[in-house]
């Protein structure tokens, strides 16, 4: 089962880092433009363990899906560094930089947004991370392991 997993606010806490940076340095309007912003994002609780379980599973084929920041050309490199840090260098080949998720074919997309980058046109099942039905990684893993997808 091919699974795409969004990175920002699904695997790593982009929003908390953004707000913390704004509070610390309000003169910088786009903190995500600063060196090290993406490479140092904190993992979402349960994300690393869950993705590692998916990687080890014979049933799932996970890929990390993320859009580049137009405010930070280093975001490409830093996101790859983040993936290597938490999942190892071998898994970096499964990092996909994509701004339009409707172009992808797969079984499942795990994303914190329902639209904006083609999520609403994804050709598969959309799991809305952070929603009432899927508030955290535990709820997602429970659903995936119970085979609740047609």
UniProtKB/TrEMBL annotation:
GO terms for biological process: pyrimidine deoxyribonucleotide catabolic process. Pfam families: NT5C (PF06941). GO terms for molecular function: 5'-nucleotidase activity. Belongs to the 5'(3')-deoxyribonucleotidase family. This is Uncharacterized protein. SUPFAM superfamilies: HAD-like. Gene3D superfamilies: HAD superfamily/HAD-like (3.40.50.1000). It comes from the Bacteria. It comes from Shewanella livingstonensis. Signal peptide: none annotated.
